[in-house]
Design brief:
With 261 residues, the chain is of the alpha/beta class. Helices cover 30% and strands 23% of the residues. The protein contains nine helices and 14 strands. The strands form two sheets. It has an eight-stranded mixed β-sheet. A hairpin with a 4-residue loop joins strand 3 and strand 4. Helix 1 packs parallel to helix 9. The two termini are 18 Å apart.
């Protein structure tokens, strides 16, 4: 029997800005699995920041994390791309020169220097949720285990950083306060492609839900891309179908539209 798989972004898709998941989404994923389809998280977050039990309790078959740099199926790691420390060190020097503050993201740990993030709500959230798995960048040079990183700028110097790092990284700009640097050649789409190769899933049997800039390649790559009603205009224009917003049972209606539940 041919396998069908559905890939879900997290933020703005599975849950809102307060990590609230609609009951209809829980019901939809339960029905999806009962019908024999595979359900995957597909996120820009690295595996080190995919740990919320409220999210994982939805019962996903696998996780594609870090914009395609990590693939897990049935709790087992199938693939991981780790950045060489010299590449990370060079990127950090560029960030310093461009006056940008950085969060390094890896399979288990995330890294930041807390004094650079004083009063930053996102950094405080990381500290609460990761505990001892949130490490300093400085002083842990021999422990870095990183697959991508994010940064914030105080001005438009991030354009210079993007240019200087263009050989090694693709840059996804969410605004000056959220810029992702992803290893060249990696994306949510590349992660889906690799997962499908490893698990013998035909591209024609793939579906994806997303809402923002780092979902565009995923929505384009799968056979059926579905944008959330609360998503960006770009996401909606890229997708094959636009469902209702997250808070209006968007996941449920999207799966229902394709007859998957």
């Amino acid at each position: 029997m041919k396998k069908k798989a559905v890939f879900f972004d997290i933020d703005g898709t599975l849950w809102d800005e307060k990590s609230w998941i609609p009951d209809s989404t829980r019901e939809a994923i339960r029905k999806l699995k009962e019908n024999g389809l595979l359900a995957f998280i597909c996120t820009g977050r690295t595996k080190g920041f995919v740990r919320d039990e409220n999210l994982l309790s939805l019962g996903f078959d696998g996780i594609i994390a870090g914009c395609g740099t990590y693939i897990e199926y049935n709790g087992k790691q199938l693939y991981y791309h780790r950045l060489e420390n010299k590449v990370v060190a060079n990127a950090l020097q560029v960030m310093k020169d461009c006056k940008m503050i950085v969060i390094l993201e890896g399979r288990k740990h995330l890294y930041l220097d807390a004094e650079q993030f004083a009063g930053n709500a996102y950094a405080e959230k990381l500290a609460r949720e990761l505990g001892d798995d949130l490490l300093r960048i400085s002083g842990n040079e021999n422990r870095w285990e990183v697959s991508k990183f994010s940064a914030a700028a105080i001005d438009e110097s991030y354009f210079k950083a993007k240019e200087l790092l263009a050989d090694d990284f693709d840059c996804l700009i969410h605004g000056m306060h959220a810029i992702e640097f992803v290893p060249k050649g990696f994306s949510k789409a590349s992660g889906i492609q690799k997962a499908c190769e490893l698990l013998d899933i035909d591209r024609e049997d793939t579906y994806a839900f997303g809402d923002s800039v780092n979902d565009l390649d995923m929505l384009s790559y799968v056979a059926h891309g579905i944008a959330m009603g609360n998503g960006t205009d770009e996401a909606k224009q890229t997708a094959e179908h636009v469902t209702s917003p997250l808070k209006e049972d968007g996941i449920y209606h999207g799966l229902e539209h394709y007859g998957l539940i």
